[in-house]
Amino acid sequence: MNSNQDPGENPKAFKHQVNLESARRLATSLSQTWPAFDQVAFLKTVEAALPPLELKARVGLIADALAQHLPAEYERALEIVLATLGPPLEGTSHVSSEAFYYWVHAHFVQTRGLGHFDESLNAMLEITKRSTAEFAVRPFLRKDSARVLKFLRRHLRDPNPHVRRWISEGTRARLPWGERLPMFQSDPSEPLSLLEQLRNDASPYVRTSVANHLGDIAKDHPGLAVETAKRWLAEHRASPKKFPHAPWIAERALRHLVKAGDPGALGTLGVASSSRASVSLISLDKKRVRIGERLTFSAVLKGAVSESLIVDYAVVYQLARGKTGRKVYKLKKLEIAAGASVAISKTHSFRPITTRVYYPGEHQLLLIVNGKVKAEAAFQLLGPNLSV
Fold first, then answer.
1. How many whole angstroms separate alpha carbon 176 and alpha carbon 165?
2. Residue 147: how many CB atoms within 10 A of its CB?
């Protein structure tokens, strides 16, 4: 356990990756680079305020303390910060202690470097080879998107996959945890032109970002996303060796529209918006499940005609103050013949997670075929068994 960690907290929470130990590591590295760095004062500032803070606030605290104890001249301070960078990442693991460690470096550039575009963009390029600068680049895009886009285009063929992924992630209008980019929400043409260059990237890490980015565009411009995916799929059919990744990207990018039953998205993926298949049986392995346990359900689909099916399921959760909310989960895509039956099953976990609070009460499980609810079953979610 970290020395600044509350024993009652989830020890796997991301915020614990940004801790007093990582601040000490940074202080040691800075003092080796610049002997005038006051490690004691820096760590005193961090240690006093760090424990109650969440992840992004911890990053901001350490970056602000860093700035307080470095030279006031940004170019000189940046030179010192960059001298602490270790070697570039090997592979494409996107969540690691190193990624969180270097988030502080990126945040320093994000909050101090807006008046120094060239130096800051080049610094982000180096930082993203060790972590990511997808959050740091966003204020620069908001200030002068043309200038940043020109820089990013020069690196579309960078040999480092982290750099190529940064180009996609950094320009996502709705990047999770990131500052919104309203100009790209209203007009995604510039980011989309970057995705056109990255969609056939050799790295799955980069292609996943392309698909997620197109999925973001679909939330604001569903028609544009559908038409883009349709065009990419047509190019794949015409030249599968040249565009081998289009089907996977299209399916991932349109998954939220498919869950919502969007006819255009379903048709693009080759399925009808109104399936004629029926559900002849749906069953749960228990009617009462405790928080922390698992629920297994099974169903039998009956085909009226030969067709392609996208099968999802949803859980209708109890929320605070008597409200309910539906969350859709991917299940499978399959082909069914006329008169055939297909059995499916899935186990769903109610293990506590940081992104969801469970409330006891009646819940529903919905089976969704081509965007339409075909069957449902109710069950009771109970509080955890505290005696175990």
1. 15
2. 14
Distance CA 94, CA 91 (A): 9
- Output the six-digit token pair for 127: 């930082």
Distances in whole angstroms, Cα of residue 105 to Cα of each of 5, 30, 64, 295, 318: 22, 12, 11, 44, 41
Q: Whole-model pTM? A: 0.87
Say if CB 215 and CB 253 are below 8 A apart: yes
As beta bridge partners, residue 329 has 313
Could you give the CA distance from residue 244 to residue 240 in angstroms, rounded to a whole number?
5
Q: Is 93 helix (H, G, I), strand (E, B) or coil?
A: coil
Query: Checking DSSP bridges between strand 372-382 and strand 288-290, what pairing results, if any?
Result: parallel
Residue 77's nearest CA partner among 45, 117, 46, 123 is 123
Backbone angles phi, psi at 368, to 5 degrees: -120, 125
Q: Is 16 helix (H, G, I), strand (E, B) or coil?
A: helix
Alpha-helix residue ranges (DSSP H) falling in 69-160? 74-82, 97-112, 117-128, 138-153
* 388 residues of the chain, pLDDT tens digit each: 444 445 445 667 788 889 999 999 999 999 999 999 999 999 999 999 999 999 999 999 999 999 999 999 999 999 999 999 999 988 776 556 688 899 999 999 999 999 999 999 999 999 999 999 999 999 999 999 999 999 999 999 999 999 999 999 999 999 999 999 999 999 999 999 999 999 999 999 999 999 999 999 999 999 999 999 999 999 999 999 999 999 999 999 999 999 999 999 999 999 998 899 999 889 999 999 999 999 999 999 999 999 999 999 999 999 999 999 999 999 999 999 999 999 999 999 999 887 789 999 999 999 999 999 999 999 999 998 755 4
Compute the distance between CA of residue 122 and CA of residue 187 in angstroms, rounded to an integer: 26
CA geometry: angle at 52 spanning 46 and 58, to 5°?
50
